[in-house]
Amino acid sequence: MITLTHFLIVGACLFSIGLYAVMARRNAIMVLVGIELMINAAVLNLVAFGRYDSEHYGGQAFALFAIVLAAASVAVALAIILNVYRHYKTINPEDINHLKD
Amino acid sequence: MSAIITLSLLAILVLYLGLFKARRALLPVSLLGLVATVVLYGVQWGKTAEPLYSGMVLFDHFAVVFSVVCVILTILVLLLSKDYFDKSSPHVAEYYALLLFSLTGAVLVVSFHNLAMLFIGIEIMSVALYILAGIRKKDFASNEAALKYFLMGAYSTGFLLFGIALLYGASGSFDLAAIKEYVVSNPQGISPLFYAGILLLIVSLAFKLGAAPFHFWTPDVYDGSPILITIFMATVVKTAAIAGFLRLFYFCFIPLQDFWVPVLLVMTIITLFVGNLTAIVQQSVKRMLAYSSISHAGYLLFAIVAIGATSANSVLFYVTAYSLSTIIGFGSLILVKRATGSEHFEAFNGLAKKNPYLSLAIAIAMLSLAGIPLTAGFVGKFMMFSGVLADYQVLLVVLAVINAAMGIFYYFRVIVAMYFKPLDRDAIVVSGPYRVVFFLAALITLLLGVYPAWLTGLI
User: Fold this and answer.
1) Which of B102, B151, B216 to mutate to test the interface with A (most CBs of A within 10 A)?
2) Distance between CA atoms of B328 and B22, rounded to whole angstroms?
3) Is B347 helix (H, G, I), strand (E, B) or coil?
4) Is the pTM of this model over 0.90?
5) What total of structural domains would you count in chain A?
6) N or C: which end of chain B has fewer CB within 10 A?
7) What's the CATH number where A35 sits?
8) What ipTM goes with this model?
9) Number of domains forming the structure of chain B
10) What residue numbers bound the domain in which B395 lies?
11) Domain assignment of residue A97, yes or no
12) Is there a contact between B174 and A62 if contact means CB atoms under 8 Å apart?
């Protein structure tokens, strides 16, 4: 029997993996994947909680919005990363550091 | 609601104008649309506010006042943008449209009544800004700023979404009234998920506000973006972020004060010290203003630490004072940079002799940011400090006064450079729109410093 707790644990694991990918900062695409993992962990939680809200289906509707908005911001992100690559010839966030004190 | 619809349609109209190459019409149409929005808000004023669209948005006095502040600040930014982007890119319409979309998001953030609207508002506001930060496609700094802003912004979105999911799991609803009902009705049995959700929301909103320890993107992004976009980020986005923060916590989380106030208290103190100590050592005025905006985020958090009925008023006053001065500060930097090619303090040397009125406006702005009496900044700081004192947080006020003293040091460097460091230089040409904006901003700063009651009775 798969209960709510299982979903929450999977969600928390996904979130932590995403967090690690962002913190490690090896490659802008990997950071992007990490961010997606974090967002999808939240979406998983929303849908799991939504099962207990069979009156309004709020969690499911919110999940749809979250997916759409995440896709929109990824489109912008890829354009930015592409443009950065054209100038810096690298997408390692550690190497893109012209701006500093 | 009609205001939000007007804003979105206006942005689409501006895109079409760009498509049909009507470049001269862009600025007048945008300004007209924004003025119409302010009028629509004015018509709504005083009516009893009901949550609209099954409780999605609520245009109470709080929402209307902060929306109007955001719209007026955008009008000022647009006035400054005449001729600014024409040089760098042939696609000016996108610039106007994106600013308007971002403003729409900001308006949603200050008037949400459902966590879904908070999320959507923050996303609309931020995604437009990621593009705007990198709108100078051939500029290294602009690209880097866009990348850094995106990475940190999307990261904080992840926290926001996860926090909202946890709040939903505990309370069973996204509606602010229902969440409040949940908190009030079982004070003992609140699920641990709910507490975790509050912490995640604090993290993500602190990111958007630029409060330490989540401030590290702020200086680089403010420094790398085109100055006008920096103005927009430092004024409109900050206003929306603090107003949304306050709205959420004031509506829902006051009964759990004992849990989150200590967290915010620590964050506030760190923010004040980080912002001020690093601002002192800066050589570039742009970076100095960026760090000082971090410290102002700290002062703004005072209102949430001492949350109560007067918080909204003090935030409104502080944010207005801060935004007007910031517009003058960064706006004059545009002119100085255009004339000298430099953003350093030395670029302001001897400005007072050739441009006495411009220097006066800058001096007023710096005095207001430093919190000197007879300016709006002083009244704003006074309201913040007295709110915290009423809450018996004496230590916080003592630390804040030390920080205000540090602030005086670096703001006065600009004034000293302008008035006491002689240098032969050519007078800077200040075009008409810039004169209007500087005059209005300086005038309102002084008027609010003398008659604060005009603004304090609104909410």
Assistant:
1) B151
2) 30
3) helix
4) yes
5) 1
6) N
7) 1.10.287.3510
8) 0.95
9) 1
10) 2-456
11) no
12) yes
